[in-house]
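Protocol step 4 of 6: record predicted structures for both targets in the notebook before any analysis. Target 1:
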Amino acid sequence: MNQHPAIPRPEYPRPQFERSDWLNLNGQWEFDYDDRDEGVREKWYAGAAQPLTRTITVPYCFQSKLSGIGDPDIHDIVWYRRTFKLPDSFAGKRVNLHFGAVDYEAQVWVNGQLAAVHSGGHTPFQADITDYVTSSGSNVVVVRAQDYSRDVSLPRGKQYWKDRSEGIFYTRTTGIWQTVWLEAVAPAHLRQVRMTPDIDHHRIHLQFDLSHPYTAGDPVLSSLAVRTIISFKGELVAEDLFSMRREAESRSIVLTDKYGHDSGRWWSPQNPQLYDVTFELIQDGQSVDVVKSYFGMRKISIDNGKLLLNNRPCFMKLVLDQGYFPDGLLTAPTDEALRYDVEATKAMGFNGARKHQKVEDPRYLYWCDKLGLLVWGEMANSYMYSETYVQRMTAEWTEAVERDYNHPCVVAWVPLNESWGVPDIAHDNQQQMHAKAMYYLTKSLDVTRPVVSNDGWEHATTDLCTIHDYEWRREVLAERYSSADKAVLAVPAGRTIFAGGFAYGGEPILVTEFGGIAFKKADEDGWGYSGAKDEADFARRLADVVHPLLQSPVVQGYCYTQLTDVEQEKNGLLTYDRKPKLPLDVIRQINQGKLPEL
């Protein structure tokens, strides 16, 4: 369905599972604060008879300029309301209402009836609202969002719990911050398809999950079939048709070309080859659901202590990407802005990004898939530990891994970072067990990618030994990373690399935060881990921290801090509004081990 060009963020929000019949609900909504928590008692959800007093532009949070409000103050309970009409094409179909992300808890009413409840500020949810809507007139959707700005055990990432941002913490996000949309589907439709590439056997493994809780002998189930059509650059590769006999079914499809080879079609940052795929659900011989998707054939593995991509050694040159924008905060102003960040990262000679303390918009992952950028998927952590935190964390992380499983760009999972949420993990057995649990929980959801137990230091069980080290002296870094023994015995920031009771076991070593060189292009306040006085000094300092890691006999990758300035943090390679502090090609050459003259 065509979307009106005036709608903010009009692109399809779920690019790896795309249907044609949908309606974007971004744009102007009624809005209000509910600082005294009166809305439920006064039934603000019961229709549009009493309009809310403000307006807001969805999907931007009220703290952002793009929302039309730009209020950084704490308002932990907010309400949204808008009307909508169902398109004629929705007639006779089920209607699903989708939210990309609402921070932190959401209650959703449609025409006065409670339709959905969700907790978790970074993950999507949906509701079947067919029984609540009318096709003959206007419908009303109302959202109550509740944040917990002062709660330091809330999985929040970089959102600060104090009134104003400072240090490494930034402006909060409350409420809706990703696209809201409607989708029309048949009563029987595909809920999801899980796609697992197997390059060693030239296969794609597909797991199909139906939307409907069928029972044995259900006549609807017995009449369903799935057709899968796979193509590569417009050429048909495979076509498969099978009957669905259960709620979930699996298939493996061989993808070799007519010459018996397919390695030229493998996905990598240098060659981001993608297969197109269409899934068609057929009922009684009639097509009832068509989903368009794509996948990449790639493998990430560890063999004898070596980190491999597609069975070959892969040195990861990552940049730390906070995913913040001056006018939209956690929400990119446009899809083009997301694409630019990917293109700029690659232009500087990086082959990947570590998305830091944020489960990123699926549109970003789409551009990484399409343009070729490795991504480490990371959870937004809390700051302190509690049993309530554990419940929140495990539920939301499970949803995040499920949402992003199919993206070929995602090559590692990072549930915990720098002992956030587990500040006493060095010797606290309960917090160590939590880190182990997060490792094994992630493995139980995805055995195809490495998992980092606690990125930076104080590791428990982990697939990668990752170290955060903001040392700026070339000679110190060269000596520290001259051997594995020296690297794992280091204590950057006064923290041991492994928590008490755990030890290095030959895992690949990567320095996943380093640099942090502040270079201010204008007279502005802010800070960094070390400072440069001009462009030449910045380039030299950058080479001083990058080159020892490139030359190390044991380091298998790094992640430079960071892609852009964010608010008061001025250690980006780009300014907050994405202007390069050095020519991008200069940074590329430094990433190649050179030091160009300026």
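Target 2:
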Amino acid sequence: MTVVMEKPEKTEAVEPPAPAKGARKVSRTMAIGAILVVWLVLFAVLRGKQTLTLAAADLTDLHRWLNDFNDSVGANRNSNPLFLYFFNEIRLVIDTLVTFIQHLISQPSGARPVPEIGWLGVVGIAGYVSWAVGNWRVALLAVAGFTFFGLQGLWQESMDTLSLTLSAVFVVMLFAIPLGVWAGLSDRFNQIMTPFLDFMQTMPTFVYLAPLTLFFEIGGASATIATVIYAAPPTIRITAHGIRNVSKTTVEAADSLGATRRQSLLKVLLPMSKRTVVMGVNQTIMAALAMVTIAALINAPGLGVTVIQALQTLDVGTAFNAGLAIVVMAIVLDRVTTAASVREENARRSKNRFVKWRRPLLGAGAAVTAVLIYLSRTYLWAADFPGDGTVGGHIARAADTMTNWVQDNISGLTNDIRDVITNGLLNPFQTLVTDSPWWLIGVVLVALAVVLGGWKSGVTTAVCVGLLVGTGMWSDAMTTLASTFVATVLVMILGLVFGTWMGRSMLVDRLIRPTLDAAQVMPPFVYLVPFLALFGPTRFTAIVAAIVYGAPVAMKIIADGIRAVPETTVEAATSAGCNTWQIITKVQLPMSRSALTLATNQGLIYVLSMVVVGGLVGAGALGYDVVAGFSQGQLYGKGLAAGLAIVLLGVMFDRITQSAARRASA
């Protein structure tokens, strides 16, 4: 009995876990600190050695092999059976679809000097469809938006962009919704699809372009195929989510009534998840529009061409006018699909006496639309948008005037901001990663991955590091990594400040969230224009654009995480005498650490995609290498390798932060 009493089981079972948990937290922090200290010490000793630098015009054996492979593909495109009966056939089908829609609304058709449906008919169709799937307010927005394209002098460019977007979305719907339904019904298939979808959504838009031009050549078909691949994941994911979230009791009730699997799907699952599916279509349309604009780099027609040419010549006014058209198109498409997802629910709640007249009014609207289409096919004034785009000229001149005023009056302030961040944060960190030996950076990245995400994350990082070395783009990859890291740090600072504020105040959330939602609608291209006017063609321009592009998603995730902290916990801390700062730092932020890690993950992915696009405005590094590969044939292989390096960076960032998020929520 005495021996038993000397070993109290309760004490051994309960007390040790708390210190052990604390010890793990301390050891992880100390491990990260030790890794950074060792890195700095070795950097001081080995600076400038084994950095794997590569001059802009230099090529590695891999780059030359890729150039030769590209030449071989081009020479055998019309004789190789794989191209004759597979790739060329896909390209032909997609090109036929794109050409059909272009001849319908944007390009001259056959002997006609104008499209089959002129501007008046297109505006009528846009208004009618918006009214039919949404409401009259959205219809007015659509009519105003489409008319604005003509007033800007960008009617054909806007319709070309719309044609590519509609073509891509149509193809996506053909296979993405069935795949989403399958993933929603089958756990095994969902597990198979998830890694592929994660990978596709991690890749920045730039990366899709170069490989597809290898197999499908440049042009609208390649742009559409790239857009299909990039835009499909949202619909697949969200459709699967909608199917899985249908009430099990409802499905069981249908089964008990003798419904077959097909009937259960068509009569229960799909109707009850229709709103969610439409939300997936909305996200796909936004992704497609973003990709279509950037696909101008591979000779895709539309507004993207105008923006790229203006950015390359530093014509801020023209770029702003075209960018505004892209924003208007994004807003119209977003509002229409959003209204479509909630129309039936709003109709059920509405007590408007005109609801019962909706069908007769829609019939009348269809007749009016048919008349407008007839007029646009018959009369030139209704087919070719009248005027010479004077509104667009005024907008461009106003943007140029504003740019000149900014450069003349506040360039000192903007230059000071640029210099402080560049010299105080970007340059030191970039020097650290670019002047360290490649193997030292690799060891540091793998060690941090193991500490933050576990051994699986470490293995993934080690593979990515090895492949990065193999691409021959190590130095440029480290430059891109430095810009991405600095921008992500600033994104998280903004996310913490505004996300916490939004999470603690519903009023602030209601005021700020609509702006954040609108910011996420805009394609990445558009963000470059105003900051090009403020900061000129520098890498800092890309960093600021990346911050503005990535901050909204981080703010919303952090706000939701703060709001998810139980009110009883906050009240308990308040009653214990904690002030506001203590509640935020000791209660709300620690309890929402999984949301913070997720915000970091999403912020990194958004920032990386924008930093790469910044290669168009002086950011250099991997983004510039990709663009140079499109424009200079001898650098094609190098551009392709740069695209692979971007993918590896994205995968590495994503795996580390996702693993860290899972650990934080465990």
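Step 5 preliminary note on target 2. Residues 1-26 have pLDDT under 50 and may be disordered. The radius of gyration is 28 Å.
Proceed to step 6 after PI sign-off.
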